[in-house]
Every structure is written in structure tokens, then in C-alpha cells.
Design goal:
This protein has 324 residues and is an alpha/beta fold. 44% of the residues lie in helices and 12% in strands. It folds into two domains: 2-182, 3-Layer(aba) Sandwich (Rossmann fold), CATH 3.40.50.720; 192-287, N-(1-d-carboxylethyl)-l-norvaline Dehydrogenase, domain 2 (Orthogonal Bundle). Strands 3-2-1-4-5-6-7-8 form an eight-stranded mixed beta sheet, with helices on both faces. Strand 1 (7-11), helix 1 (17-26) and strand 2 (30-34) form a beta-alpha-beta unit. 27% of the residues are buried.
Length: 324
Amino acid sequence: MVEDFKKILIVGAGTMGHGMAQIFAQGGYEVAMFSRTQKTLDKASALITSSLDTMAEAGVLDEGQIPEIIGRIRPITSLEEAAQGVDLAIESVLEDTEEKKKIFGQLDACCPPQALLASNTSFLNIFEFLKTSRPDKILITHWYAPPQLIPLVDVVGGPQTDKANVEAVARVLRKIGKRPMVLKKFIAGYAINRLQHVMTREVNYLIDNDYVTPDQLDQGVKDCLALRMAVLGIFCRYDFGGLPTRTIHPPGYEDAPLDYQPVKLHALAKKGHLGIKTGRGFYDYKSKRETELCRERDIRLIQTLKLLDSLEAQGPIGEVPKDG
């Protein structure tokens, strides 16, 4: 039961790990946040403090709660020590098969026998290569950045995973304010990442062939696609537009090739322009610190989430048919 979960272990304190540690601590759980280096833990702790300050400023968190929340997070460089007494361990390290084998082997040896072990992998089918003494307790919880704010978490069990354990993790996620999407079976990229993959190919094709600029595309998505999807999703929007009787492309419609390789994106990466962490990507961020940029992003996300929550409270526009 959810009430039986008391301590959470987050393995990896990088881009995703610190946000996951933060939201579990906000939910009342004791959290061990593991990284091999103190430098990574120090940066993670600074980002957590900044994020909590931003939430308090935005009115979604009482400023007086911050010391208590931070007090629930224990940054630690010893995995053996961090794993003591945990009920759920979530791995958030490199997307590398051998690295995940190594981490899960260590977790299997260090964590209590009843602990559930989860991976934040974006696309690897861990159920094909992980070897542990607890296959019924292995699952995937795939989070989206920034994990302390984005409600969606993909939850997937493997062929040997006990469904009760999948349901237990979903309940824990709901308790901390997440909206888990429990997939019936594993597929690389899950649902939303697969949609984003198709979009990534198309948007890079458009900018590489000079049909439009990155800033124009960003504005267009916010003005139309994101706006409509925020209210209706995908399939409800189809219903409002009228379901097509056949799937065709309009005359002259041209898809990007399935194997399309981005040109401008790869050129930026080759120059070391990797986004806010280096001060430049498709946009220039050098005038602001990373914590300041994250704060501005989070304030806008919080404002949008408040609006979406008010829409959700009104209930769905349509109902799911009983016959599926």
C-alpha cells in the first residue's frame, strides 16, 4: 500500500534526478539522493533550493515549508549507505545498457528485499537485459523535465513484474501530484516521446530547408498546436474537427524522410552549443544564469498548470465509450 512507502532512493542527481528527489520530498517522503561526486550533489541541492523558492514566489508552496522539504533530502555519495531502508529506488543515469546493468546489480545487492527498483530510461527495454533476484519488482517510471512540475510519468511493467507493484508505484505517484500513464506493455519511447520524435524530425526538416525560422515555429506551436492540445488533447480535437474517413496527405504534402538527420541542430552541438547549460542553443542565453533561466521557465509552467488544473476541474468534454 502507498502508506507502506516511507523512503525513496534517487540514483543520479543530474538533469532529472534532482527534480525527482524534490517532488518526493515535497510529498512527504524521506529521500536519499545519490551521485558519485559531491560536485554534482552540490549543484543539485542549489537547483532544488532555487526551484522551491520559485514555487513559493508563484504561490504554490508555503515558504515556511522549504526548510522541512530540504531536510527530507539527504545528498549522499555512498550507494550502499543510500540504499539502506528504501522502499523504492529510481535509477536516472546515462542511457547506456552496461551502466544500467551495473547500477541495477548494485541496487539489487544493496536495497532491502521488498524494495521496488525502477528505471527512468527513455527508450531502453530494461526487461530484456537486467538480471536481478527480484524480476517481479522491476519496472519503469519515465519522467519528463522538469520532473518537479510536469504531471505526466510513464509507468511500465515487464513480463515478470507483479501488477500489484505497478499499481503501488502509480498510487505513490498520484500521492505526490503526478498523473501516471500506465502502459499495457513496453514500447521504446512510450507514447509522448514517440510523438515528440516525429515532431523533432519534421521541425528540423523545416528549419534546415529554410521554410521557417526556429523562433517562428516556437511561436506558431504556442499560438495553435499547444493551445488546442492543452484544452482538447489529440483525439478529442479530432472529434471536434470531424473524423477523417480516410488517411491521406493533401496535394503536394511532403514528409521529411524517416531517416532524416538534422543539419542545424548537429552543427550547434558540434560547436558546443548545447542549450542553457552552455549559454547557447537555438537561442542565446549568455546574459542569464542557469538557475535564473530555470526560474523563469518554472514560473511560466506554474501559471499554465494553474489554468490547466482549473480546466481539468470542470471535467472532460466527452466521455469514453463503454465499448472502448
